[in-house]
Amino acid sequence: MDNITRRKEILAALKKHGKVNTIELAEKMNVSPMTIRRDFTKFAQEGLITVEYGGAILKEGYLFEDSMVTKQDQYPEEKARIAQKCAEYIKEGDSVYLDAGTTVCEIAKQIRDRRNLIVVTHSLLVANALAHSPGIKVIMMPGEYREFSMAYMGELTNSYITRFHIDKTFLGVEGIDLKNGVTVPDIIDGASKRTLAEHSDKVICVADSSKIGKTTFFKICEVEDLQILVTDKGISEKAKEELISSGLNLQIV
C-alpha cells in the first residue's frame, strides 16, 4: 500500500470512528507502528488530530477538512460536469486564476489544449495539469507549501495575488449559505480566497451540491459578491429557489 492510499484510509477511519489505534492500523495495513506514527505526525501538523498514547483522536468541529487526495475521489462525475460548464466561460485572451481545489483542477484539465491564455494559480495540482500546455502561460504564485492542500499559501502568496489584474477567478469553497456567506474551514486558505475575490473582475464559484447550505469556519465573502455559481443537479429545490431569488446567476449541470 502506497503512502497516499494508506493516509486516505487512516483519515477515513478517523472520520468514521473518531479515534484510531496505532497497532491495529499497523496490522491492518501491514506496516510498522512507526510508519503509522509518522502519518499521525503529518496529520497533527495540519491540525487534524490529537496524538495520544497508543493512537490518535480526530479534532471535531468546523476546522476539519478532507485532504486533497481524499477529495479527489469524491463526486467525480459532478465535478467533471461542473468543470465542463466552467470551461465555457474561458475565452481566448483571458487571464484566469484557478484556485486550489479538486473541482478547480478539473477545469484545468478541460482547458489544457487551449491557446492564448494566461493561468495564474497557487495550486500544484493545477500547475501539473497544465505542465504540457504550450498554448497557456502558467504563472505560479510563491508561498509556503502545504501538503494537505497541495498548494502554496500564506502572506507571500496573498501579496503576489494583489499584483495581478485577473479577468476571471474560479473559486473552490466548502460552504455556501445566504445568511453566513461563502466559507472554508481553514483561515490561511480562506485569506487567499478572499484576496482573490477582491482582485478579480468576475468571481465564478464552483461547488458540488453537498456544499450548498453548509457553513464552515472562515468567511471569504457574501454570496452576493459572486457573479456565477456552478453546481450540480443534487441541489435542493429550496436552496435553488433561494439562491436565484437573491439575484445570483446559478448554473446547474
Write a structural description.
- The relative contact order is 0.11.
- The chain is of the alpha/beta class and 253 residues long.
- Helix 2 packs across helix 3 and helix 5 packs across helix 6.
- The longest helix is centred in the N-terminal third of the chain and has 15 residues.
- The strands form 4 sheets. The protein has a 7-stranded parallel beta sheet with strand order 6-5-4-9-12-14-15, sandwiched between helices.
- It has 2 domains: 58 residues, Winged helix-like DNA-binding domain superfamily/Winged helix DNA-binding domain (Arc Repressor Mutant, subunit A, Orthogonal Bundle), CATH 1.10.10; 183 residues, 3-Layer(aba) Sandwich (Rossmann fold).
- 38% of the residues lie in helices and 25% in strands.
- The protein is globular and about 55 Å long.
Explain briefly what this protein structure is.
The chain is an alpha/beta fold. The protein has 10 helices and 15 strands. The chain has helices spanning 3-17, 22-29, 33-45, 68-71, 76-87, 102-111, 124-129, 155-161, 187-198, 237-245, and strands at residues 19-21, 49-52, 55-58, 95-98, 117-121, 136-140, 144-146, 151-153, 166-172, 175-177, 181-184, 200-206, 218-221, 228-231, 249-252.
Topology:
Elements: H1 3-17, E1 19-21, H2 22-29, H3 33-45, E2 49-52, E3 55-58, H4 68-71, H5 76-87, E4 95-98, H6 102-111, E5 117-121, H7 124-129, E6 136-140, E7 144-146, E8 151-153, H8 155-161, E9 166-172, E10 175-177, E11 181-184, H9 187-198, E12 200-206, E13 218-221, E14 228-231, H10 237-245, E15 249-252
Parallel strand pairs: 4-5, 4-9, 5-6, 9-12, 12-14, 14-15
Antiparallel strand pairs: 1-3, 2-3, 7-8, 10-11, 11-13
